[in-house]
Every structure is written in structure tokens, then in C-alpha cells.
């Protein structure tokens, strides 16, 4: 990140978000198990489909207000809402209140996220966006690696203590944001909104979302993202089903005197941990190594790595081969992560960054809705057919990205010619 200096806004958020993310991963992977044990698996399965849908609303409202009120107030409200819901969760004696608190935590996080990303785009020069987003992803994924290991003990044995700790960390983070963070929304936008009535401001913002959804380039970008995320999301969906049902127990290093014997369940845990470790270790080096690549090339290569790497899992049950496949589809995830936010950040108009970044979350949410299709089909089709479906989604995503950038270049060329004539 040459010629870019991290200011107080960025440092406070990097530390605060990283620490909270560690605590988040101590409870999140086990929440479905918790509700399954308390409410029943079928009921829990239905209930867990609601939070992602409500997060769409929270994200759209948060993005709206981030452009209207400013980044700082929205981030403060989102953090306060999460803190309050953790207090409710920790103090609750009812499973249904626990569920409401869990939904509230998700809405607060979705409300916070667009303003957070927009603030980075406000501060960071375009040349450094990928590296900065990669740094935040690295810190967050350290929590994703360590959190589940620690949470496997703390969530089930010391759940209330863990939840109160999450609330306390968020309180400290809220105070740090309030006293140490400054507003970054473009000045001309802030002045415009101050002179507007609240009703007119909201009406204008929702009209802004209508314009976004009519933007052919952006909506094609969202559609391509849904298809390209389909293989990546299988790590939490079809891959555990396949590994547990199809892969036999085997030794990790069979040529040693005392090889480690892994069951299919423990093998899945090792692969997930390996995926997280690779992400933490490689995202910054890979991002820096590919910083001169075009966004088109990055999107296409990442989609191919994720799709082909996941497809190859079905070709062999050898444990070392499966670790190799994990490297491939993890590289796809690593290459993709920083460029998604940087693309939206420079594509969106400055005065609408929050809304565009909020609408960008649709690809992740809708992808989560579509991705469980493989689990459903596993009861009908053979494993190799399921992996074929995954590969098909990957190739479709590549085709959509090719179409996207062809349209993007076609629409951008007249603007560049007009600018050159004007200058």
C-alpha cells in the first residue's frame, strides 16, 4: 500500500472489527446446533432461513442512511444495536428471545456494513483499495480460523460469559468510534442533505435504489456474483455432506511410524481449518502479486479456480489430493475477495457509494439462498452429478463476467472520449 497512511479511523476499525470478529466466530458456527438442540432440527432449519432475508433489508436501509446521514452515525447505530442484542441474548431465559436477539445481531451487522465499506472507499485512494480491503479480510479471517476452535469449548460450557464478553467488546468499540472516528461522507453531499427535508431525503434515496436496480452493468455484476459464489459457498453446504458420506477414514501421513488417523468428520474440520489458514496467510501476498491485473481477469480467474477446485474434490478420496483441491478453491476465494469491494467502490458515484455497497450484498445473500440447492439435489443425483452442477454454475459465472465487462467497456468508451475532447 505504497504512499497510503493508515489514519485513526482505519486503525480503530481494524482493531475493533478484528477483535469482535474473533468473538463472532466463537458462537456463530454453533448457533444452528444450539437452536437445533433447543427447538428441534426441522424448526431450526426453517428459522435459520429468515435472518439472511432480513439482513437484505438492514443492509439496504443502512446503505441508504450512510449516504443521507453520513457514515459515522450509521456505524454508531449499527454497533449499538448489536451490543444491545448481545445483552438481550446473554440475559435471556427463553429460546425464542435468543432467536430474536440473534436476528437483531444480524440486522445490526448488515446495517453497519455498507457504511463501513463506504468509509474505506471515501478515505483510501483507488490504487490502494484492494490492499486495504485485503488487510481487513486478513484480520477478519484470523478470527474465522481461531474462533471456532475456542468457541467449541466456550459456547457450550460458558455461553453466557461469551455473550457478555461480546457485549462488552462492542461497548468499548462503540466508545472508540464515538470519540475517535470522524465523518468521511463527501462534503457537498452532506451539505445537500442538511438543507433537504427528511421526507424528501428518504424519497430521493429510495428512488436512488430504483435507479441502481435499473443499472444494467451493476445488476449483471450482481448476477455474475451469485453464480461465481455458488462453488465457494459449498464449503459449508455440500462438501461436508459429501466428505462425511463418501470419504473413508484414512491416515494423514501414511508413511510415518505414527500416522494421524482422521475420520470423515475430522477430515472436514481439518480442511475447513486449512482453508482459513490459507486465507489468512495468502490474501495479502496474492493481492499484492496480482495488483496489476485487471478486474475482469481477476473475476474470471477466481471463478474458475473456485469452480474447478470444488469439482475436482469429487474425483478422488485421497486425503492429500483433497488438501490440494482445497488450495485451488481457496485461491479462488482469495483472489475474489478484495476486488469485489474495490470494483463497486470506484464504479459507484461518490454520493451513492453506501447504497451501491448495500445493493452489492444482494449477491452474497441471494447466493446463500441458492447454494443449498446442492444439498437438496444430493438426495436425487449422484455425487459426480452434483459436482457437475457446481462446475456449470462456475462456467455460467465466467460467461456473465465476460458479458459484464464487454458491456461496461462499451458504455464507458463514449464517456472517456467526451472527457478527452473536453480537456
Molecular structure report:
Helices cover 81% and strands 1% of the residues. The protein is built from 18 helices and two strands. It has helices at residues 8-27, 31-39, 41-47, 50-68, 71-91, 95-123, 129-157, 159-180, 187-194, 198-213, 216-232, 238-246, 264-289, 295-312, 319-347, 353-370, 373-377, 383-422; strands at residues 250-251, 261-262. It has a two-stranded antiparallel sheet. The longest helix has 40 residues, at 383-422. It is globular. The two termini are 30 Å apart. The model is unreliable at 194-198 and 419-423 (pLDDT under 50).
Features:
two-stranded antiparallel sheet, Growth Hormone, Chain: A, globular, 423 residues, mainly alpha, 18 helices, 2 strands
Judged by helices, strands and strand pairing, the structural class is: mainly alpha
Q: Give the amount of beta strand, in percent.
A: under 5%
Average pLDDT across residues? 80
CATH superfamily of the largest domain: MFS general substrate transporter like domains
**CATH architecture annotation of the largest domain:** Up-down Bundle
- The count of β-strands is 2
Q: Using the alpha-carbon principal axes, give the shape.
A: globular
Short structural summary:
The chain has 423 residues and is mainly α. The protein has 18 helices and two strands. Strands 1-2 form a two-stranded antiparallel ribbon.
Task: Itemize the secondary structure elements and their pairings.
Layout: H1 8-27, H2 31-39, H3 41-47, H4 50-68, H5 71-91, H6 95-123, H7 129-157, H8 159-180, H9 187-194, H10 198-213, H11 216-232, H12 238-246, E1 250-251, E2 261-262, H13 264-289, H14 295-312, H15 319-347, H16 353-370, H17 373-377, H18 383-422
